[in-house]
Design a protein that fits this description.
It is built from eight helices and 14 strands. It has 318 residues and is of the alpha/beta class. The protein folds into two domains: 18-103 and 287-313, NAD(P)-binding Rossmann-like Domain (Rossmann fold), CATH 3.40.50; 104-279, NAD(P)-binding Rossmann-like Domain (Rossmann fold, 3-Layer(aba) Sandwich), CATH 3.40.50.720. α1 (27-37) crosses α8 (289-304), α2 packs across α4 (155-166) and α5 packs parallel to α6. Bound molecules: glyoxylic acid. Glyoxylic acid binds at residues 81-83, 285.
């Protein structure tokens, strides 16, 4: 764990600007975690109580990008999310560092979520839950091999793949760029994507949302997946909901959805009551302030030292 830094010659609040945390949940924990990590800085909850010229870092997810110009000494925006689809680069000054959150603890939590659901269907626990309702004692067929497709093999996808591999599940993967990976070579293009879906029994979708990935899991992909399972922990907008509902009316065995094009999922969505769908309210990888602040704190130190934080988000990487 990184130690709090008291920089020489700087008293509390002097030369060490404010960190403003914009959080709807776990507010006390965020403030506590930052106060422990940066005892020489003022930690402010929400921009309304900040002193604009003292603000050096904004930390949060739903940030009002139009407000950035109010903070003349802003040194960085530290996201509390891995996702970056909510950024508006037209309002972000080009030289201002914006840093995604890649928290190893969050990746492990997402891996646990995905593993839970992969095992659930691979071992027919869904069938046994139904049998229990009818007091049926019957041992179902054991699926000998479930190949898991990781759609989006980035920092988080790699952790998910490693966990599944350690349990013996064969893994295949696909991502948006051509590259060699421990899980095979990635080829871009629709043909490679369809081959990926056809090779998978369960697909774990971790893709971020961008123009390139919107509705990428559509009719053709779901047809290639056949009677498999789709687990979506990426972004809702990457899956075409109508195509998913059609696939669920047909062969698709099940869908586990943690993310949706509109969140909260509207009460009248047919997904809520669909017998083949499991829904969770975007909790696959909840941000834990105490583990996140270790990562964010290290990036703040890098920016303070004139070094590049990681991973930096730019309009080009988006
Ligand atoms: C959660 O969805 C995140 O982007 O971190």
């Amino acid at each position: 764990m990184s130690e709090p830094r008291n920089r020489p010659g700087e008293g509390p609040g002097e030369g060490a600007g404010e960190i403003v945390v914009i959080a709807v949940r776990n507010q006390d924990r965020w403030v506590q975690a930052f106060t422990d990590r940066f005892p020489d800085r003022k930690i402010v909850l929400g921009t309304q109580d900040a002193t604009p010229e003292s603000v050096e870092y904004l930390v949060g997810w739903k940030i009002d990008w139009a407000q950035l110009g109010n903070f003349p000494n802003l040194k960085g925006v530290m996201l509390t999310s891995a996702g970056i689809d909510h950024l508006d680069f037209s309002l972000i000054p080009p030289k201002l560092p914006v840093v995604r959150l890649i928290d190893p603890s969050m990746s492990t939590e997402i891996a646990a979520y995905c593993t839970h659901w992969v095992v659930h269907y691979a071992r027919s626990f869904d069938v046994y839950a139904k049998q229990q309702q009818a007091a049926v004692w019957e041992i179902g067929p054991r699926n000998p091999e479930v190949t898991v497709g990781i759609l989006g093999l980035g920092a988080i996808g790699t952790v998910v793949a490693n966990h599944l591999t350690s349990l013996g599940y064969p893994v295949v993967s696909w991502s948006r760029s051509e590259k060699d990976t421990p899980y095979g070579q990635h080829h871009v293009g629709i043909e490679a994507l369809m081959q990926f879906f056809a090779a998978s029994n369960t697909v774990v979708n971790l893709l971020p949302l961008s123009d390139a990935t919107k509705n990428i899991v559509g009719e053709a992909a779901l047809r290639a997946l056949g009677d498999g399972v789709l687990i979506n922990v990426g972004r809702g907008g990457t899956v075409d909901t109508n195509a998913l509902l059609d696939a669920l009316s047909g062969d698709l065995h099940a869908a586990v959805l943690d993310v949706f094009a509109t969140e909260p999922l509207p009460a009248d969505s047919p997904l809520w009551s669909h017998p083949k769908v499991a829904i969770t309210p975007h909790i696959a990888g909840e941000t834990n302030p105490f583990t996140a602040v270790k990562v964010i704190g290290a990036n703040i130190d890098l920016i303070d030292d004139g070094k590049e934080p990681y991973p930096l988000v730019t309009a080009a990487t988006y």
